[in-house]
Amino acid sequence: MAQENKEQNFVINIVDSYVKDISGNWWTFFVTGLLFIVFGIIFLIWPEKTLIFIAYTIGLMAILVGFWNINAAMKVKRIEKRYEDMKKNFKSNFFE
Per-residue pLDDT tens for 59-68? Predict the structure, then answer.
């Protein structure tokens, strides 16, 4: 009986945590909903300009993600180099 109660409380705690996180950010869902409605109306009114907007948006996102990936790759390479240097220093200080 005690084990079942612990399991039930664990599930309730997970749900409580999730509900608190979501309800604390209700305004982001509200604003996102409003933006979707506004964009939907604009897209229906000006379909030709919508295609141009989407093309520019995808192009800009691709460029930004490309720069972000290059930056992340450089950071990973630096971390790898530092790790290798740290291993060499550790070995030379403690095992030689």
Answer: 999 999 999 9
User: How many whole angstroms separate alpha carbon 59 and alpha carbon 22?
Assistant: 32
Return d(Cα 8, Cα 27) in angstroms, integer. 31
Please state the pTM of the whole predicted model. Answer: 0.48
Q: What is the 3-state secondary structure (H, E, C) of the chain?
A: CHHHHHHHHHHHHHHHHHHHHHHHCHHHHHHHHHHHHHHHHHHHHCHHHHHHHHHHHHHHHHHHHHHHHHHHHHHHHHHHHHHHHHHHHHHHHHCC
Indicate the domain borders of the chain.
1-45, 47-96
